[in-house]
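Narrative of activities, Objective 1.

The group set out to show that a structural description can be obtained from nothing but a protein's sequence at a throughput compatible with the screening campaign. Below is one input-output pair from the validation batch, recorded exactly as produced.
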Amino acid sequence: MFRPKLPAMPQPTGLVTPPAVVVEPTTITPGTPVPPPASVVPAAVSSRPAVQLTPGTALALVGGGTAVVLVVGTVLVSMLLAVAVTAASVAVCAVVLRSLLASQHRR
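Output recorded for this entry:
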């Protein structure tokens, strides 16, 4: 009951032709020296030197990251404050215009 039931592999339908593989014979000549395989460098190793983190560079990275966070935070807060001040001034203008138009209808 608790064992999963795996579906059976579906069989191909229609005409199935095997792929055409052409194998050509090769000649082996005795006495031919085989060169030793060249040392292969893994793809993960790049030609750039590894970055060494010393306590000084780690402290500089932390300080730089903190500075970036503070600057971005300051910019975002100032933009939010500018939007709030603009909204408040538009609301005050709307109240003043409404009162002026209402007093004009009373006269």
